[in-house]
Amino acid sequence: RVRGLLRRFLPPEHKIFSDPSFDSADLRSLQLLWNEHAPIIEKQRPCPLQTWSSRHGVVPIGMYVCNRPEYLRQVLSALRKVKHVEHSLLVISMDQVSEEMLAVVLSADFCPLRILLHPEPEGLTWGIGGHMHSILAIKRHWRFLLHQMFHSTPALAGYDREVLLLEEDHRPTPDLLLTLAALVRLKNNGVS
Fold first, then answer.
1. From the first residue on, what is the mean pLDDT of each consecutive set of 10 residues in the chain (192 residues)?
2. What CA–CA distances, in Å, run from 118 to 144, 163, 169?
3. What single DSSP character describes residue 148?
């Protein structure tokens, strides 16, 4: 699945395809390759990313998603109706890669999109039944998403302002970005 993503969204002449280890790389290595080279997918008109801070008060949106496609469909459907969302960059970090989840994520055609694949963390303690301790796993995924947004997303280079964080079970209302912009203005004016 990850090799397919790389082949689908990176140009065939990209340097990773000429690396002899590409075809035999393990999942974690492929996830790291994808995250390093993940393009911004723009299905609509390109978004002038440099004008975020002044345009409509719109901020980049980071979304942590688990393997719950129906929840994600509902959130993306609601997010599509948010006023000015087309000016945002949506960064979705997936904790698992499945064909169904990829199809749902790729249906987000209302704003520029960057897909991240959270690599399975190493060195975590495992609980009963082989499940990672959930609080630690969630914390590490959020840290991964924020690091990727602020340090590894070229379109956000130098961006040091607000971001909107969602999960796939947070359904936004159409006035979400307008409300957030009003709250940011209050904060910037010293209102607490």
1. 75 75 73 81 59 57 92 96 92 88 92 88 54 72 90 84 90 94 88 70
2. 7, 19, 18
3. H
